[in-house]
Amino acid sequence: MKNAFKYFSLAVVAMFFILGVYLLVSPSFNYLPKEVRVIFSVFLFLYGAYRLVRILTKRKEEEEDQS
What DSSP string runs through the chain? Predict the structure, then answer.
């Protein structure tokens, strides 16, 4: 079960990055001003990075506890 949670967490992080890129470059969002798209894309990138760091630190703490 822990393995499934790790993979799901990494998939969610990847989705944040993919959504940020899609929002930034997709013609589907041309009705939004460029500044708004950039702001939301940066927010998605930063939140994805935050979640990735949290996952990696949690994994490192679990490895240290097992040692």
Answer: -HHHHHHHHHHHHHHHHHHHHHHHH-GGGTTS-HHHHHHHHHHHHHHHHHHHHHHHHHHHHHHHHH-
CA angle 53, 6, 1 (to 5 degrees): 150
Whether 23 contacts 40, CB under 8 Å: yes
Domain ranges of the chain: 2-66
**10-51 pLDDT, tens per residue?**
999 999 999 999 999 999 999 999 999 999 999 999 999 999
This prediction's pTM: 0.85
